[in-house]
Amino acid sequence: MSWVNAVVQGILLGGLYALFACGLSLMFGVMKVVNLAHGDFAVLAAYLALVIVSGFEVPILWSVLLVAPLFGLVGYVVQRFIIQRSLDVSPLTTLLVTFGLSIVIQNALLEAASANSESLQSGILASGSFQVAGLHVGYLSVLIFVTATAVIVGLQLFLSRTSLGRQLRAASDDQETASSVGVNVRHVFGVAAGIAFGTVALAGVAFGMYSSFDPAAGPQRLIFAFEAVVIGGMGSLWGTLLGGIVLGLAQVLGSQIDPGFGVLAGHIVFLAVLAFRPSGLIPQVAQAAQ
Amino acid sequence: MSELEDRLNLSITRRTALKVAGAGALSLSAAAFLEACGLGGLKGTSSGSAGTITIGYVSPQTGPLAGFATGDNYVINGVRGSDPYKNGFKVGSKTYNVNIVVKDSQSDPNRASQVARELILNDNADIVLCSSTPEVTNPVADVCEANGVPNVATIVPWESWYFGRGKKPGEKFNWNTMFFFGLNEFKGCFFPMWDRMNTNKVVAGMYPNDADGNAFRGNFIPLVTGGGFKMVDGGAYTDLTSDYTSMISKFKAADAQLFSNCPLPPDFNTFWKQAAQQGYKPKLATVAKVLLFPADTTALGDLVTNIATDCWWSPFHPYHSTLTGQTAKQLADGFESSSGQQWLSSLGSVHSLFEVAHAAMTSVDNPKDKSQVMSKLQALSYTGISGTLDWTKGPMPGVAIQQPVGVQWRKGTKYPYSMVVVDNALNKDVPTNGDLLPTNA
C-alpha cells in the first residue's frame, strides 16, 4: 500500500517539476538558450505574488492572474533587450548573462525582502486532501499536476495549430530563411520567452504554496527543472512532462527504499539517461513531426 | 544534443575555474594571514592604543542566517549608550574608554574568519564576541584561538562548538568560551512536555543527513530511548527533499504520537504541509532549529499553532541587565517599539555577550592583558539579563549552560503568532503563562 502511495505522490510531484521545467524546455527548444536564472525568476514570481496577496488582500490564486501576464511581459523585455543581445554575440554568452541575472536577482531579493523564508498561504489548499482508496491525495498536488499538464497541452496546441506557433517553429529551425519569408525573428523569440516566463511565474507561485522560499532558493529549483528537461529530451514539451514525472517518481520511490536515497535516486536516473539515452526519453526528432 | 553537451562542459569548466580561483584566493589570504601573524607576534601583547579597550563583534547580519541578527543593531546601540560602555570601564583607579567594532559574517564561514582576523589585526581587538550558529562561532573561535585573543560565543549548541572543533571531553580551548545549551537541555526541555501529554510514548524523529541531523541521530536518540520512549527514525534524508511521503507513511504506520526534528526551515515547511495533507497528526510536535524566531512562523501560517520548541530567553525571564539595569521585558519592548518588529530570543544573548565582556574586564588588574582576561572568563560566574551564567560548572571547560523553557506558538494579539511559556521544568525562574496544548487535538 505504501508503494502505491509512493507512486501516486511521485507522479504528482512530477507535475511540479514539469511545471518548472516547461519554460526551460521551451526556451531551449526555440532559442537554444539555457536560462540559468530560471529558478531565480520563479522565486521572484513567488515574491511578487506574496506582495500582491498581502498588498491587495486577494486570494492567492487570483494573484496568478496578475503575476503570469506580468512575467510574460518581463520575459519579452528580458529576451529582446538582454538575452537576444548576448545571443547575437555568441550562444555561450547567454550562459554568462543568465548566470549574472541569477546573481543579480538573488541579491536584489535579499536586499528588498531580507533572508527570511516566506510562503504563500493557501490555507486548506496546501494542507487539505481527499481520500481515494485509502490514499491521501493533496488538493494542491493535484492542482499543480493538472496545471502542468494543461500548460503543456496548451503549448503544444499553440505551437502546432496557430500561425504564431508556426512562425516560432520556423524561426527555431532556421532563423535566416524564416526572416527572409517575413518572420520577425526577434519578436517571435520575445514571444517565446514571454510564454516561457509566464510558465515560470506559475511554477514559482505553485512552489511558493507547496513549500517555502527565500532569496537563495532558485538554483536548487533550476537543478530539478534541468534534470526533468534532460530526462525527457531537450526541447520536447511532452518529454518535459514525462521527464518531470520520471524524476518525481525516482525521488519518491528512492526515499521509499531509503530516505537518504531519495534525491540521489533522481540524480542517478538523470545520469543514466545522459549516459545511455542522451537525447532523452522523447527526443526532439519526434516533435518535428507535429 | 552535442550542443547541449558543449554547454554542459562549458558550465562545468566554468565552475571548476571558479573553484580554482576560490582556492587561489584562499591561499592568497592565507599568505597574508601568515604575514600578519608575524607582525602580530612582533607587537606582542601591547596591541591597541593605551587607555582604550576595543571589543569586536561578529554576527551574520546579512545572508540566509540574517534572521538571527535581526536585533543586533538595537542591542548594540543600547549597549553603547549604557553607563559602563559610554563612560568607560572602571578598573581599579583607572578608566578605559570602550570602542565596539561590529562586523558582518554575511552568513559565510570564510567571511567570518576573515572579519575576525580584521578585528584582531587591524582593529587590535582586546576581545572578540560572536553569535549565532556554528557557521559564525566556530571559524571566529578558531581565529581567536590561533591569535591568542579572548573570545566569547553564544547561540550555538555547545557540542557543535566543542566536539565540532576536535576537542575531547575535559580538554579546554586556551582562548575560547561560550554560553548556550546542548542536547541534554533539549532532553530536559522536551521530555517533561512529552510526559505531560497522554500518548503511547512513540516519538517520530525527522533528522536530516547533515551535521545537526546526525548529531541528533547519534546522541539524542539514545537519550530518547533511555528516557522510556520508543523512537521511530524517519531516516537520514537529504536536505531540500521535495517529498516526504515515505517518512510520513512510516510515522503513521508506527502511530508516532510525538514528533521531534532538527531540519532546515524550508524542509520543515514542506514536511509539515504534506503531513497535514496525508493525515499524519502527532499529538505534540517539539521542534528544534526551526521556529525559533517569529519571522519563521509566518511562512507556515496557522499550521504553526501549538507547535512546541525551546526558548532560552524571553521577556518573561525575570532577569535584568548588569549594564543598563533594564529588565528582559524592557529590552524586548524597546526593540519592538524602535523597530516595529516582534522580539526574538537572540536579543538577550547578544546583550549578555557585552555583559560578559564587561564583567570579565572590570574584575582583572589590567583589562588590556589578554591572559588575565581569559583566565577570568574561564572562571566567571555572574547574573545578568540571561540569568546566571557560570563557567565553573561545566559540562566542559569554557562552556556555561543556559536552561531553556518549553514554549508553544499561539495566535497573538499584537503579532500574528507569539511564544507562550508552557513548561518550565528546567528553569523555575520563568513563570508559565499558558497551558500545554496538543498540537493536533
- Estimate percent helicity of chain A: over 70%
Largest sheet: number of strands, sense, barrel closure of chain A: 2 strands, antiparallel
User: Which CATH-level-2 architecture of chain A?
Assistant: Orthogonal Bundle
Please mark out the parts of chain B with pLDDT under 50 across 5 or more consecutive residues, or reply none.
Answer: 1-49
N/C terminus separation of chain B: 55 Å
The name CATH uses for the topology of the largest domain in chain B is: Rossmann fold
- Low-pLDDT runs of 5+ residues of chain A are 286-290
Shape, per Cα inertia axes of chain B: globular
**β-strand amount of chain A:** under 5%
Which pair of protein chains has the largest interface, and what are the residue counts?
A-B, 56 and 49 residues
What's the structural domain tally of chain B?
2
Separate helix tally of chain B:
14
Number of helices of chain A: 13
Helix-strand string of chain A: HHHHHEEHHHHHHHH
CATH architecture of the largest domain in chain B: 3-Layer(aba) Sandwich
| Average pLDDT score of chain B | 87
> What is the beta-strand fraction of chain B?
15-25%
What's the assembly state of these chains?
Answer: heterodimer
- The spatial strand order of the largest sheet of chain A comes to 1-2
Report what the structure shows.
- The complex is a heterodimer of chains A (290) and B (441).
- Chain A has 13 helices and 2 strands; from the N terminus they run H-H-H-H-H-E-E-H-H-H-H-H-H-H-H.
- Chain A has 290 residues and is mostly helical.
- The N and C termini of chain A lie far apart (39 Å).
- With 441 residues, chain B is α/β, with parallel strands linked by helices.
- Helices cover 41% and strands 19% of the residues of chain B.
- Chain B folds into 2 domains: 214 residues, Response regulator (Rossmann fold), CATH 3.40.50; 147 residues, Response regulator (Rossmann fold).
- Chain B contains 14 helices and 16 strands.
- Chain B is globular.
